Amino acid sequence: MEGDSASISIATAVISALENIPVDQSVAMTGSLSVRGDVLPIGGATYKIEAAALAGIKKVIIPKSNEDDVLIEEAYKGKIEIVPVTNIIEVMEHSLVGVDKKRIMEKLTKLTNLKLNLDIPEVVPT
Which domains does the chain have, with CATH numbers? Predict the structure, then answer.
């Protein structure tokens, strides 16, 4: 795992470790992640999906913005489920497993809905 396209994988691994909740090992994922939790496009989506299928992966999570770029060969179409997502909540929904999944999903949803109410003073050059 490396580069920007590993962002959602790294975020998933961190949340999994911190919350002690497992990740479905039949799922692969690729996607960049914004500071607001939006899943952003990556390069080479088709190749990554086909490589996952060859490795025996059953489901691959990709950025929704890459959905129209994917041109999977017929040989791979029945072997893998492609799940387009737009945000980190959707990534977690499709990748986390176990009895605590509902708890962590509620916690993540609550965190992403927080609005910071900060009074930031305007800086005027002198």
Answer: 4-98 (3.30.230.10)
Would you give the DSSP letter of residue 28?
E
Strand-strand pairing, 59-63 and 81-85:
parallel
**C-beta atoms surrounding 20 within 10 Å:** 9
β-strand 59-63 against 39-40: which pairing, if any? unpaired
50 pLDDT above the threshold of 60:
yes
Count of alpha carbons within 13 Å of 72, Cβ hemisphere only? 21
Identify whether the C-beta of residue 2 lies closer than 8 Å to the C-beta of residue 30: no
Give the catalytic positions in this structure.
Answer: 5, 48
Highest mean pLDDT among 35-39, 51-55, 106-110: 51-55
**Coil, strand or helix: which one is 106?**
helix
- Secondary structure string (H, E, C) spanning 80-95: CEEEEECEHHHHHHHH
Max Cα distance, the chain (Å)? 66
